[in-house]
Amino acid sequence: RLGSVMAANGSSVTPGMGEIIQLNVGGTRFSTSRQTLMWIPDSFFSSLLSGRISTLRDETGAIFIDRDPTAFAPILNFLRTKELDLRGVSISVLRHEAEFYGITPLVRRLLLCEELDRSSCGSVLFHGYLPPPEKFDSVLPLKTTTRKTSPVVDPRKVLIIAGHHNWIVAAYAHFVICYRIKESSGWQQVFSSPYLDWTIERIALNAKVVGGPHGDKDKMVAAASESSIILWSIQDGGSGNEIGVFSLGVPVDDLFFIGNQLVATSHTGKVGVWNAVTQHWQVQDVVPITSCDTAGSFLLLGCNNGSIYYIDMQKFPLRMKDNDLLVTELYHDPSNDAITALSVYLTPKTSVSGNWIEIAYGTSSGAVRVIVQHPETVGSGPQLFQTFTVHRSPVTKIMLSEKHLVSVCADNNHVRTWTVTRFRGMISTQPGSTPLASFKILSLEETESHGSYCSGNDIGPFGDRDDQQVFIQKVIPITNKLFVRLSSTGKRICEVQSVDGTTISCFMVRECEGSSRMGSRPRRYLFTGQGNGSIQMWDLTTAMDNANKGEERKKEGLLQLLDQCDLSTSRCATPSISPAPSLLHHTRLRESCSRSERELTHTHTHTHAHTHYRNTHREKEITNYLQLFTFLILCLQSRRRLCFGYMAHITMNNTFFTITY
């Protein structure tokens, strides 16, 4: 009978098209028609039902498909209605499943949504792009020496990025390149070093050298590999000269500048210092070093014997008897644990009195301590202020800032934070430091990585100590995505993804003064070195401003809009905006939209009035019930019948009662 009716209407029924198909997807059963599964040609289902793909059936005879049933539900709904309801499934997961089933219209729709966030021009956070060096073989070897066998490093990728003021230096495997930013012209390449026969592991940059050999406009760049250090002097014009090659005698673990001094340290217990004024390189033996930090002109060393030592680099003091560096013990840990992390905070009082200093350090046992040097305790040294024993693994990082104390231990970068109470800029015990957050910054490393990986992929925290600081999370070694998180709470600020899809090989956060105009403030940028040799820049100031607003983009609204149009089969960036013929005709679509707008406007206008009327009406009904109940009691007591006048009054207020006495 059904076939005859459809034949009368000019349609025909293809044999088997109305057949009910039973599916078992990952243990969940679905029932649908053959026509629903076959309307997309060359899909998984058309091949399955036509016999081109072998089928596996369960005990009930249903076709078994070993896929996720949760993701299959919105796909089957799309095949039925040609509309998409995510049903809580992420777009990436749904696209992956749609590609497996060969649902081409759905794949196009989901790809368009994903491509909106993957523009080759980046998002609002993307700030700039420095292309790879033109020729990696344009610099020739100057010398050849025998080096120990080390992991092979891709010569094209950026290994480390360092910065100082408005300058940055990028280290590749065998040379470095310096860039400078100007307000009018942006970032410009200034210097490219000659070829080095050894692979760079550490770099340092000083963009403001006072009293250098060529005046106060000198810039200095240093690079280290194993025990060797090479130092260049760069002028504003871009010309550079090699100052010299120095040897620490042992592998260099840290390389940095303190004023005019280039400092290199090794965990074996050696400190190397080069002074820009005296042009002298000196190596000093100390206790094995487990941590270090700088504060002004001071270099502080945390050692494995539980002591903290300091050297005043401004005076460059030398002992008269043997011309060695004057290394002074500042504090000794009460538990004799190795000082594995060190952070020095100079309060505003330091610039006035010069003898107020706060130091936070972590130990190999997981303890976190804060010591304070008061003006009245200069003779007796720093005093122990606070102790926290919340870590069960050695503390690897610590940061004491104006508002927070942050510590990181070796247990997958477990972070603990506290709020710091200050009075007139100085740390206070009332009410004292209170726990704030506990979270992890998971960052996996390769089993055999080059020595440059740790220095080029340091998680932080980054930022000035009187401002909000951030962690940079690189979850896996080979990835094109980074996460920026607040160091105080672990809140995710933003997600950064390479605009060209290349692997991020290193990163760094710096503040740059892009404008000299009055009232302009430095902006914070994230620099990412890429596997293809390029450098990409991201505006973290804007990211933090947006995070404070709590903005969050939604893709579900876009998918609902796309349900009203068919996407072109071409790879054109602009989809066809014609309505889907399978959904609505042109006139019905316009009428539906206009009617929806009118209904929405009417509902919005009268919602408040309707709510007020409903509440008032309920109050009147309650009053009538109370009046009627009181009247009944009086009638029962006096044995009188109800009068019709009162019943008429109740009827006028939409309440009618029939009472038999």
Notes on the protein architecture:
This protein is of the alpha+beta class. It has 3 domains: 18-115, Potassium Channel Kv1.1, Chain A (2-Layer Sandwich); 126-549, Methylamine Dehydrogenase, Chain H (7 Propeller), CATH 2.130.10.10; 586-652. Helix content is 21%, strand content 32%. The strands form 10 sheets. It has a 4-stranded antiparallel β-sheet. Helix 4 crosses helix 5 (91-101) and helix 5 packs antiparallel against helix 6 (104-115). The protein starts with a helix and ends in a 9-residue tail after the last helix. 32% of the residues are buried. The model is unreliable at 1-16, 139-148, 568-615 and 639-661 (pLDDT under 50).
Radius of gyration: 36 Å
Span of the ends, CA to CA: 64 Å
* CATH homolog superfamily of the largest domain: YVTN repeat-like/Quinoprotein amine dehydrogenase
Helicity level, as a percent range?
A: 10-25%
- The CATH class of the largest domain is identified as Mainly Beta
Average pLDDT taken over every residue: 78
* CATH domain fold name of the largest domain: Methylamine Dehydrogenase, Chain H
Helix count? 12
Question: Strand order within the widest sheet?
Answer: 4-36-35-34
Q: Could you say how many structural domains there are in total?
A: 3
Structural class: alpha+beta
| Stretches with pLDDT under 50, minimum 5 residues | 1-16, 139-148, 568-615, 639-661
Name the beta content range.
Answer: 25-35%
Function: Accessory subunit of potassium/sodium hyperpolarization-activated cyclic nucleotide-gated channel 3 (HCN3) up-regulating its cell-surface expression and current density without affecting its voltage dependence and kinetics.
Subcellular location: Cell membrane
Keywords: Cell membrane, Membrane, Phosphoprotein, Repeat, WD repeat
GO biological process, one term: protein homooligomerization
